[in-house]
Structure formats: structure tokens, C-alpha cells
């Protein structure tokens, strides 16, 4: 399973999906994990209406992101004309080169963006606006050849959760320093959010990546070190945020009595 941030898809839509093909860029993410957290658009690439070749400038930007932000290169995403939603022979050739140059990679992502989509989605496909993203990955075999497979994909609502947590801090006086990140829990990614509540306590929220339609685990850490844990349900749009606001206000009331 591949996990990809909603913020990445928003950039892909802007720089690739809303433009004429072919265009592309690099995908980066958490080292050693199948999680894509960043997209770098390749505005120096050699492109035609039916071809895309990554630029040397993109290589430099990827290296900088790896060194400065602790990220790992995951592969290249680019667009195809019409409804041709699978890697071409040229794509597979460049994929083989990518694996040769990056032997540490367990797989090399090569998602394809198309602006025409028909029928029901498969588990390796995503719809964003008018575009479709079809996710593929290349794997080295024991015979040193490359095997290309469809890769199941799931969206991580990172940007949405970050926006909601910031909105919560704006709506309740005393909430500050909202932080959002993604963690690995028993082999599965979780969204984590932390916020400080005046000088009273800290909140740590752990959510499934299907946010906002998920249950929230909340860990409250008081200033004396005492901790308590609870769970909130939020299966409708906006419901979890409303329940969280009620929870925080009740905790503040109790802490100030």
C-alpha cells in the first residue's frame, strides 16, 4: 500500500493535472516507508505533447530536499495525453535507470496522471478534480530485471487535519502551537497532532489516515505529569472537530475550577 499526502495531490493537480501533458516532477517522503509527503515540480524538463524527460535541475532539487529535510526520493510522477494511464516503454526504461542509480530503493514509483477517466476506479487509482492518478511501481527481481506492478494507494488527509487543528486554536482562547505530523504505528501510518492549552495541559491526537471519518485517540498530559486517555468518534464531515472543541472546553473548565 502506498500512502500519499493530500497536499502532494493538490500540488500535482496544479502543476500537472491542470496543464497540458506531458509534465512531471519528483515524489519524496518518509525514509524507508511507503509514504509520499512532498512533490517537486520539474519546470526545467524536456517535454513534448507525448514525452517527458526529467532535468538535471530536478536531480539537484531532490538531493537538496533529501539532505536538508531528511526526505527520501520515491520516484517520478508525470502526465500522459488522453486516457493512456500506464507507463510507456520510455517510462519503464527510465525506471530501470532510476533503480540502477538508487539500489537502496525497495521500489521506484512511476504514477501516471491523465485528464480523461472512464468507469469505476481500481484500488491503484485516485480521482482529483478532473484528473486521475494511476499508481505504478517498479521492483528489481532476483534476475536483476524490473517488474512493474499496480500499487494500491490511499490518501492521507494531512493538509485537512492541519487546517482543522489551526482552526481549533483560532476558535478557543489559550490553544497554541499546533503541530501535525505522520507516524508509523505497528506498520501503519497515523496522523498525529499536538497542541498546548495555556499552562494547563498538552493534547496529543492520534488519528487514522482516513480522517475526518475516523475515531480519534486523545492523550491529555497535565502540567504535573498526570496523563489520561479518551476516544472521540467523528464519522461525518466536521463532526470530529466539533466533538474535539467540546472536549477541550470541558477540560479547560475542569482544570480551572
Describe the structure in your own words.
The protein has helices at 6-17, 56-69, 89-101, 158-171, 239-255, and strands at 2-5, 24-29, 35-41, 46-48, 51-53, 72-79, 108-109, 112-114, 125-128, 131-134, 136-140, 146-150, 153-156, 175-185, 188-197, 201-208, 214-222, 227-234. With 257 residues, it is α+β, with helices and mostly antiparallel strands. The longest helix has 17 residues, at 239-255. It starts with a strand and ends with a helix.
What layout of secondary structure does this protein have?
Blueprint: E1 2-5, H1 6-17, E2 24-29, E3 35-41, E4 46-48, E5 51-53, H2 56-69, E6 72-79, H3 89-101, E7 108-109, E8 112-114, E9 125-128, E10 131-134, E11 136-140, E12 146-150, E13 153-156, H4 158-171, E14 175-185, E15 188-197, E16 201-208, E17 214-222, E18 227-234, H5 239-255
Parallel strand pairs: 1-3, 1-13, 6-8
Antiparallel strand pairs: 2-3, 2-6, 4-5, 7-11, 8-10, 9-10, 11-12, 14-15, 15-16, 16-17, 17-18
